[in-house]
């Protein structure tokens, strides 16, 4: 476990969704000793506080309705979820899978393994966010290249330009307006689409 990762756990905003019993108190105390900033909520809330970075969520079949409502409220970038389970029955396992949990803590809760599960879950979450960011970047690049290719094809057909001449035309327009070439290409494509829209019958 890297020193940098352990350092990142200090001050981590952790929400514990667990009944206010002895195990819940133990969990909160141990997380605070690790250096996390801990808050608690019970019963399962309809939505999470905006600043929750990690959520330790008690999962059981009897809480299914509340958990499903909570999961539906999560935004596009949900926090790191760690499931707390007391039984390994199919119903509980199904909810764990639906929650998107990055780690599972089994009851009765013990101090051994909590730090490891927290660190691993957070590391996996951060890696997923990095991969999603790269995927979005690649998608934007691919869409931009497709738009640029279509814009050049439009210019080649409408102005009898070669591909290189069409590329240079778009480049000059982008430099003159101080915008990306993709923006000029998108404008060309949009104009062409508007011009080729079928007219409504009178």
TrEMBL record:
InterPro entries: AmiR_N, ANTAR, CheY-like_superfamily, Sig_transdc_resp-reg_antiterm, WH-like_DNA-bd_sf. Residues 128-189 form the ANTAR domain. GO terms for molecular function: RNA binding. Coiled coil: none annotated. This is Two component response regulator. It comes from Tistrella mobilis (strain KA081020-065). The lineage of its organism: Bacteria, Pseudomonadati, Pseudomonadota, Alphaproteobacteria, Geminicoccales.
């Amino acid at each position: 476990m890297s020193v940098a990762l352990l350092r990142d756990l200090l001050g981590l905003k952790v929400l514990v969704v667990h009944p206010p019993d002895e195990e819940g108190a133990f969990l909160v105390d141990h997380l605070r000793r690790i250096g996390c900033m801990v808050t608690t909520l019970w019963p399962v809330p309809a939505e999470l506080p905006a600043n929750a970075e990690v959520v330790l969520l008690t999962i059981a079949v009897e809480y299914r309705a509340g958990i499903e409502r909570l999961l539906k409220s999560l935004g596009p970038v949900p926090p790191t979820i760690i499931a707390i389970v007391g039984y390994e029955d199919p119903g509980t396992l199904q909810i764990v899978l639906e929650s998107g949990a990055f780690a599972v803590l089994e009851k009765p809760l013990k101090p051994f393994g909590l730090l490891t599960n927290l660190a691993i879950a957070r590391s996996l979450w951060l890696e997923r966010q990095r991969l999603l960011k790269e995927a979005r970047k690649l998608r934007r690049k691919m869409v931009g290249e497709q738009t640029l290719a279509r814009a050049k094809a439009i210019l080649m057909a409408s102005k009898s330009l070669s591909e290189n001449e069409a590329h240079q035309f778009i480049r000059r327009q982008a430099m003159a307006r101080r915008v990306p070439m993709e923006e000029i290409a998108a404008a060309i494509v949009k104009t062409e689409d508007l011009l080729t829209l079928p007219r409504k019958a009178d």
